[in-house]
């Protein structure tokens, strides 16, 4: 069944009114009519099976039939801080990171990031990225849509990190050292509803100064298995392991 | 340090001779010379730090300095059977599946696969796919290169499955059923050095007949977390969880 995200103001007791782009999708793309059913996700996480009452160019009015009880949300809030990578790798992380349950994305300008973003470029990309994340949320049957923060400087990332319960950074050198910190040790300390900031470097990795700064700000270095992962694979490995721990092991 | 895969016939007691494409990479791309060090992976899994003795257009002769003792191989053999997906998704699975430790890839023609392959097309694609997997093995510091089998029919997949210790199929319906089989239950039964065949459907998923056939042939259906994953994300989630279980939890 098709799934749409609607903001709370469109929820009126037992009716949900859909406006904007999704109206076009429902009417012109899916060619739905009165009587057809869809799932509406209200942005605070609740979802309901709804039946279309009426359709116009501007809106689709639906009645709530039943509220869903499926819980598809990762029970811990993971923010992926991604050192800006090249090409369309960030889009891949946003799409698949959303499928895998990420709560929030924080792209940041790492020392070794090859791409540099100006604010004009950022605005256009952000629209595209929000669309990617919304579609991935719908397709993966999430109850909520992860947020994407504006590209931060490394200093802003460090400042932002102070509000998190847990902070980890994927550091490949950890994989080569015989006394590496196991990822499972880090994950075993996390509890449901806590917040995790997981930091991944760009293609060139982190500089020594960046690693020292992160450690000074309470980040724990972890390896992600014994193999070296690409910048865009690392967050997916991390999210999958956190999902496995919280959603498949318990 | 740059890593190259060489076949066993290039290993001569304490010398390793590199021929073919890698010579161009060493000499023209990396601009290496006598005295420079590289890592040579012999195809049976051993790797050595080597020093370049001499360089020519046709070969690079190196001396073995030390054999590596790092073990980067996933201690259980996972074959990813991927229902042929659209576009370049298979390439993504091959590349990242290799980083994540897969032993072997078996693309197969699923009932709902939109793409159909003829043998001429297959030959050209296979060359490209082998290159992708070799490069991903080098970049991720694997000691061996996963194999890619020719595209199989569904019947051939079922026949091939008889040689595996464990057979699982990612089935999203399992995610919606209240009595779902946990992935951890399946993984907990696996032991090091055993073989796993993990089957993933194409974009349209599996047909009911395919699921019935797979179950009849001893496949267990599993869900991969509570969210629905895309065809190309599913094998990555699976490999990450298996890696987490065998390489990070123990």
Structure description:
Chains A, B: This is Ribosomal RNA small subunit methyltransferase E. Chains A, B: Its main location: cytoplasm. Chains A, B: Residues 73-242 form the Ribosomal RNA small subunit methyltransferase E methyltransferase domain. Two copies of one chain form a homodimer. With 250 residues, the first copy, chain A, is α/β, with parallel strands linked by helices. Chain A has eight helices and twelve strands. Chain A has helices at 21-29, 89-99, 119-139, 154-160, 173-176, 183-188, 208-216, 234-248, and strands spanning 3-6, 11-12, 15-19, 37-42, 47-55, 59-67, 77-83, 104-108, 147-148, 166-170, 195-200, 220-222. In chain A, the strands form two sheets. Chain A has a six-stranded mixed sheet with strand order 1-4-5-6-3-2. In chain A, a hairpin with a 4-residue loop joins strand 4 (37-42) and strand 5. The first copy, chain A, starts with a strand and ends with a helix. In chain A, 41% of the residues are buried. Chain A binds chain B through residues 70-72, 96, 99-101, 139-142, 176, 182-184, 225-230, 233, 236-237, 240-241, 243-245, 247-249, and chain B through 70-72, 96, 99-101, 139-142, 176, 182-184, 225-230, 233, 236-237, 240-241, 243-245, 247-249.
């Amino acid at each position: 069944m098709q799934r749409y995200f609607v903001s709370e103001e469109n929820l009126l007791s037992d009716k949900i009114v859909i406006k904007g782009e999704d109206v076009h999708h429902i009417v012109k793309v899916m060619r739905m009519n009165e009587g057809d059913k869809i799932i509406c996700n209200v942005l605070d996480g609740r979802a309901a099976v709804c039946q279309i009452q009426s359709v116009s160019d501007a809106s689709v009015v639906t009645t709530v039939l039943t509220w869903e009880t499926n819980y598809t949300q990762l029970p811990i809030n993971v923010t992926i801080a991604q050192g800006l990578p090249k090409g369309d790798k960030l889009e891949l992380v946003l799409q698949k990171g959303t499928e895998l349950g990420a709560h929030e994305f924080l792209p940041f300008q790492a020392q070794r990031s090859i791409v540099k973003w100006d604010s004009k470029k950022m605005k256009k990309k952000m629209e595209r990225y929000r669309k990617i994340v919304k579609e991935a949320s719908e397709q993966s049957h999430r109850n909520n849509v992860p947020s994407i923060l504006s590209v931060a400087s490394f200093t802003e990332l460090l400042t932002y990190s102070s509000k998190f319960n847990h902070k980890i950074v994927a550091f490949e050198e950890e994989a080569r050292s015989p006394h590496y910190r196991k990822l499972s040790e880090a994950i075993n300390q996390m509890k449901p509803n806590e917040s995790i900031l997981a930091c991944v470097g760009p293609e060139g990795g982190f500089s020594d100064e960046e690693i020292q700064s992160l450690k000074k700000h309470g980040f724990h270095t972890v390896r992600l298995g014994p193999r070296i992962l690409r910048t865009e694979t690392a967050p997916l490995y991390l999210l999958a392991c956190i999902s496995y721990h919280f959603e498949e092991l318990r």
